[in-house]
Amino acid sequence: MQRILITGGAGFVGGHLARTLQEKHPGADILVVDDFRLGTFVNLSSEGPGGWSFRGRVIAGALHEMDLDALIDGFEPEVVFHEASITDTTVMDEAAMIRDNVHPFEDLLHICVERQIKLIWASSAATYGTEANGAMREQRPFELPDAGRPANVYGFSKWVMENAARRTLAEHPDAHVVGLRYFNVFGPGEQNKGKMASMIFQLAQQMLAGKRPRIFDPGTQARDQVYVKDVVGCTIAGADDDTKPGIYNCGTGAATSFNEIVASLNEALGTDYAPDYFENPYVFYQDYTCADLTETKTGLNWEPRYTTHDAIVEYAELLKAQSGVK
Length: 326
Known about the structure:
- The longest helix is centred in the N-terminal third of the chain and has 21 residues, at 94-114.
- By secondary structure, the chain is α/β, with parallel strands linked by helices.
- The protein is globular.
- Helices cover 35% and strands 16% of the residues.
């Protein structure tokens, strides 16, 4: 890969992706496009131990306001990593969600297929909705899919994007189009996401401040928590020549309860805080998520390197060091 376009490249996952791609392909020309609504230059400069310096190009702007044909023709990327999106699941402006998430993706999808450009894009476990009680499977032919029953407009927007990708692949089966259903991503740099930072980050901050961690009662709600380093690895795997086009889960394959998260944080931080339980105010909340990685392992030849426990411990130790707490 010598010419790489990353939409949403100044965001949490996008910044990690830009850094890893720059390290793996030091001679590559990397272009980041971001509207900087949640993205920040910090994700492209100094985040993480030792810091780093982005050497590529940056365009500030919203994709739905851009001439994407001109953008692609001017830069001529070999691969597009599409991370740009409204990711705040509490946004209720349905028109804005569809306008920002769906419409630019459909245009980008058409352009990449027409020009034979690899397209790897971020979908979401939010497409599965709130009713799953077992491992969530990618859609398989002639079966009722586990996904397709989103509980909010964010998940719906990702489902519509998936439908567009499926229609396109049915017409162009050799097109290199790979969608990744990100589960709950956490790791260094997410403090810039504000209220959308992971529960792991927010609970760690409470505990580092000497407070009991606040979690939804009874704390047995369990989600597939995946380390950002693994998400980047999975995303880059989607660009490999041998990858089978399609839509895949990107998670750990294990569900970790909030109670277990608190226990892992206590272990890493050297604390002994009991949870402070409160009622969940969100009716559309996913009480359970767990990625079935069967298709991911075969179609992408990828599996996670970190268990959730090990990733939480590594991350929490970094947060403790950054906080200055002894």
